[in-house]
Amino acid sequence: MKCSKTVVAGLLTASIASAAIAGEGKTPSGIPHLDHLFVIMMENHSYQQVVNNPAMPFINGLIAKHEVNLATNYFAVGHPSLTNYLEIVGGSNFGVRSDNSPDWHNHSCQPNLQTKIPNADNAGGNYPNPIESGNVCPIAGVGTDAATEAVDNWNEVAPPVFNFLANIDGVQSVPAAANTLGKTIGDQLVRYGLSWKTYQESLPVSGADGVDNSNGTATDKTTYNASAPLSPTNLPPLTPAGLVAAYAVKHNPFAYFQSVQEGWSPENSVRNMVGFDGAHGLYTDLATGHVPSLSWIVPNQCDDQHGRGNGDAFCQFDQGTAAFQGLTDGTQVGLNPGLSEQADVTLNKLVTSIKASPAWHDGRNAVVIVWDENDYSGLAKALPANTAFPAQNQNAVVLAVETSGTDDRDRAGVKSQTFYTSFSLLKTMEAGFRLPCLNHACDSGVKVMSDLFGEER
């Protein structure tokens, strides 16, 4: 089934860039040099669902007390989670528009950049071109990524309730880009003598390699022999109805890249993926002050406001409303207050620990709190072409920034109305570390967040 004329017309209208440049470009400027950057990734809630949410006093207290700078016009580019994570760390979806797991260490498959066939879900069942729906071939090389249309009516929709989903605001789109490089800011940091780690809560002690889901002990790869004694290699398996899938590889974008899976550089490998606890984990590194240039911090799916269907009351998905068949509508109606509170308490612990670290007082640093995408609330019927979705259904999310090592000319409590996207966040990180812009971060119109991070002088 072909797309409706209304939606197709929308795809031909506004785009973030008139021509997608891709590749690596000039080194952006506009903010002071950063010594350490801490990015905390939260999940699946829109700006309107977080700001003034009574179950989230910590993040709203930071905003109300002007302790953070707030982007009030910041947008995730698309859906689902993995796509957004890839876009923040690599400036591209790399042809991946699904949450599918990596095809770990597969040397014979062709990356989606080369095949030009997107890895997608096709929930609407009407994409006119071929898609792949299996595990994601390790990302590498140079090729063409997948376009992000203004309105999704085929992939991440939820028929019949939400047949049309705004990837950004329902008007702006992102064209596919040739010469897309299969690399991330992690590759760039290592190339320029800097460092990165991703801290993944509930990662198993055995490490990240080959693991798609884990509760911190058992994983999706765990085998179990009921007649043998329990051991670290013989544990009850992780199943949808059993243990909670707290760690999810879809929230660990670096794991999808061939350079990291194969560890071509010792400083750019699966060894960069650690948990929150342990000798080399987040809290130990913060306590000692021995943190990398970029700390990519991902709470587990009970703590990042994502939720799990088999979790407790503080981990259950948002219950939604009967009017939308158990889905949420972009407002705070139908949210699980326990899930919101759990996320807020987690943020409190993380931010407090970061600001207590010796690293926070060593040079100029920043902490970014950002949600990856909204709650997938969309529309049942298509709007006229080139029409913005209602505010509660746009893919606008919270991005808050706090910096250290500032001087009196830097202000706190800025509320920026500048239009920013995930590509802007990547470009700002690259500006802070003096790295070349990467892929869509190089597109015209993608701005550095100087008002949020402080202006370069």
Could you please describe the fold and organization of this structure?
The protein is α/β, with parallel strands linked by helices. The protein has a single domain (5-202, 246-453), classed as Alkaline Phosphatase, subunit A. Helices cover 19% and strands 12% of the residues. It has helices at 5-11, 47-50, 57-64, 81-90, 112-115, 185-191, 258-262, 282-288, 337-356, 422-433, 450-453, and strands at 36-42, 69-71, 74-75, 96-97, 119-120, 142-143, 151-152, 165-166, 180-181, 196-200, 213-214, 247-248, 273-274, 294-298, 365-371, 399-404, 415-416, 420-421. The strands form 6 sheets. Strands 13-10-14-1-15-16-2-17 form an 8-stranded mixed β-sheet. Helix 4 packs parallel to helix 10. Residues 1-13 have low confidence and may be disordered.
